[in-house]
Amino acid sequence: MPYQKKYLPLVLGVAIAAGIFIGGKLDFTDSPDRLFSTNSKKDKLNRLIDYIEYDYVDDIDTDSIVDVTVNGILDNLDPHSVYIPKEDMQRVAEEMKGDFVGIGVSFYTYKDTIAVIRAIENGPSAKAGIRGGDRIIMADGDSLFGDKLKDTEIIKKLKGEINSRVKLKVYRKGEPELLTFTVKRSTIPIKSVDAAYMLTEKLGYIKVNRFAESTYKEFKAGLEKLKALGATEIALDLRDNPGGFLSIAESIVDEFLEDDKLILYTKNKRGSIEKSYATEKGDFENGKVYVLIDENSASASEIVAGALQDNDKGTIVGRRSYGKGLVQREMDLGDGSAVRLTVSRYYTPTGRSIQRPYKNGHKDYYDEYFERLDRGELLDPEKIKVDDSLKFTTPGGKTVYGGGGIIPDVFVPIDRSMQNETLSFLLRRGFFGNFVFEALEKNRHAYDNIPRKEFIDTFEVSNDLVFAFQEYLNLRTESKVTFVAYHDEVKQYIKATLADQLYGNGAFEEIYNQNDIMIDEVIKLSEGK
Q1: Beta bridge partners of 262
Q2: pTM: predicted TM-score of the whole model, two decimal places
Q3: What are 413-430's pLDDT values in tens digits?
Q4: How many CA atoms lie within 13 A of 418 on its CB side?
Q5: 174-197 residues labelled b (16+ CB within 10 A) or e (exposed)
Q6: Are the C-beta atoms of 339 and 86 separated by less than 8 Å?
Q7: What's the CA gap between 508 and 500, in Å, rounded?
Q8: What CATH code would you report for 99-189?
Q9: Distance in angstroms (rounded) separating the CA atoms of residues 154 and 433
Q10: Which fold has domain 193-414?
Q11: What are the tens digits of pLDDT across the range 28-70?
């Protein structure tokens, strides 16, 4: 007995160590004879990296080799299993979470200086008194100007711990000296609901740009606002929405579907099925819904459209969606990086998978948009390829198809005028935003007494401003730019960008949507035309 007591700690220690070792080797698919064997494929990869690190003639960054290796492995899987490097994790996490801790300004670097485009409404900078046009010169004594300062460095200096304070030195036009502001950092939302406003007396409009953790809360607030304004119908705009969290899509669908209606189900490689049903919490079950989709509506957007279409709820308007029916899970790789690995497929309530094929490789998969464009599918619904073997029927008797996106109930062709590639490029690259900022700098106070609604309804952009934008581009681009064919469209882009910088909160969308043919179609459907 004394012998047992004496050596009991040693025995327990050995047992625990063995348990840790076995746990590290254990896999649910391992058979007993493999528990203590090595995995030759894994060993081969580890040995190669070790040889390169210790014996190769030149110094090599083995981290970069590992990154290339991981990407090479994932390239042999589906197009949506992706690697997220350590340096990108914070940005990706913030985008999916829907917020970050900062001072609450939108800015761009103008002549080597941080120029505030707009202080976010009710954010810490707005409360401190910072406004559009201000230049942030210093933060806690550190300079924030100069041609060598990168946006990533600027953001790092302006972000910080929640409730921490940062002392800013600000140049404001017309002020003889630099102004000093102490700003208390707080949680700043990255909006996923761009706009929520009324299109007609009964038809409300909500634009969702992605499905982040905060999206349902934003959506619910927009829905309640529109209901209070008299909305009995909702146009849910999911165009250009690449997706996001599946659970958030389910919550939004739940607002429209009656209790116990199937939203979707998922199936993994082992055949395990998980079903999701609507609950009693839906607040718009009796209202009409129109879902706007296009060729860039993917994943969670397609879950929403497919669930409503398969339950004969509402009307899907637009063009065939992207065709992503795979579900990813983010998995930590232990060094700050992660992999988003496809773990299951999802199916709409009728049982269809809307995932398009990817057997011909990633390039062919991502180039499918150009195939749709070339065969005329974006202009003519008769050119949409359907597979009769993937035909399904909804409870109401409507025919729907699987195998490559959601085909809308009402087709709307691509608008060549508002989808002009040159204008879209100029908007994405910030030319409209930078030009408008400089225009405001010349006389920002001219807009001080124009209410938001009055600006949206009655303000007109002058021809002189269009010509000034044309000259602005010609000084900054190699080609000669003219807007003879798109004069009115350029006016609309300029006005929308002005509204965004002056008012924010969906003002851009309210103006940009005024000549949107898909929204016009939804209004006609709502009015029974």
Answers
A1: 277
A2: 0.85
A3: 998 766 677 888 888 888
A4: 16
A5: eeeeeeebebebbbbbebbbbbbb
A6: no
A7: 5
A8: 2.30.42.10
A9: 20
A10: 2-enoyl-CoA Hydratase; Chain A, domain 1 (3.90.226)
A11: 444 444 444 456 777 888 888 888 888 888 888 877 888 888 8
